[in-house]
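Here is one chain, start to finish.
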Amino acid sequence: MAAGSRLLLLLLLLPWLVMASHSPPGCKIRITSKGLDLVKQEGLRFVEQELQNITVSDLHGKEGQFHYNISQVKVVDLQLAFSDLHFQPQQHLVFNISNASISLRFRRQLLYWFFYDIGSINASADGVHIHTVLQLAKDEAGRLKISNITCNASIARMHAGFSGTLRKVYEFLSTFIVTGMRFLLSQQICPSLEHASLVLLNSVLDTVPVRNYVDEHIGIDYSLLRDPAVSTDTLDLDFKGMFFPRARENQELENHAVEPVIKETERMVYVAFSEYFFDSAMHAYFQAGVLAIELQGEKVPKDLEVLLRATFFGTIFMLSPAVDAPLRLVLQVSAPPRCIIKPSGTSVSVSAFLNISLVAPGRPPVQLSSMAMETKLSAKVFLQGKALRVQLDLRRFRIYSKQSALESLALFSLQAPLKTLLQLTIMPIINERTKKGVQIPLPEGMDFTKEVVTNHAGFLTVGADLHFSKGLREVIEKYRPAPTTPAYPSSRPAEPSMDPHQL
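Its structure:
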């Protein structure tokens, strides 16, 4: 009976345990098949460059009295006519090259009794097939990585053109030479692509921001929450998407927001942001203590100063001789602002208090009033380059006294001028601070175009196309470690021997 009760309790708690282990993302990115097609175009150029740099070992041997040596093998041309890059569930990308051809040129040396021949040979490898599967995963730092690659390469046929005085001899030996060259070439294709993927392409993924600073006050955590989810048409990445105050970098904010759901597949890429993403930014700024603005003396608009002095005339008159002391207005947010995303738009609710004081030189400030403020800001979210930016505008505004309802009535005349103060003075300062925006987690050299922002219940999505402002090779070379200079000059590599006795 006790065992049955425990089993029943476990079944009841199982859904809650699953939900607890699944942290919802603050930011989600979906790459579609259309986006993968663009990546394929740039990736194919990169693969061509890598295959052109293949190094093939020298081939030498003898058949009876014939001694031969093949060296200085170079790839001179590539024809990758048929290629395909597609998603493969659950975590893989598959890259295939079919019926490609590779043209080679190499140096020949032949010794037959007392006859010695030297020259170059042009060869062609046809029917080249390459099948690679890249496994994508989250590393310990929360960064997307190519964690493994499987590769198979084959060459259907290879032929070489011979010329010179011993052309007939070379044609006799062509079976040995061509077979050996085909084997050596096929053995170098996969190691070259494995290095390109696990080292070079991962160095490009290292340029994706994971945990970096936004400004002098806050930072952003874009670490992956889990391994990427790959379907036949899409690749989905779940990022933490949490801002943090730089003074408390280990501070965590629980995510209780709606999880973004991306259903569209028409554009190359979709980026979704939940309310948690924006809430954590405002919470981080609040924790950093920067959501406060002070205006004093000449910074207070003249019309507002005259109205405030008239409103609090009785209190000021009783403070003689401090009647002519400058006014000071301190606007302080009292709680972290909250973001609300609806299909109709995005808004931010802010609660604050406004302290109005007289500040006489050499004397402590004298508070004239402390009033509460409730404001609702409309937020326009847009992308500029790879930076997500927010433009805020005052939509609703209300002030009231924290002491009594009677004083709230007395403050009613300040409603319009204080709203004007916010619109003309405070809002430009806030928008200037948010002008820089925050970078979206994309590799360097890849940018958005034709962005469209769509609001949903609890989150918003940005659908866009992609383009490469820099090639993969350019980014790789930018971050490639500089070669170390040897302490002593190294000797130059020896040239291939011209002495037939050394064959």
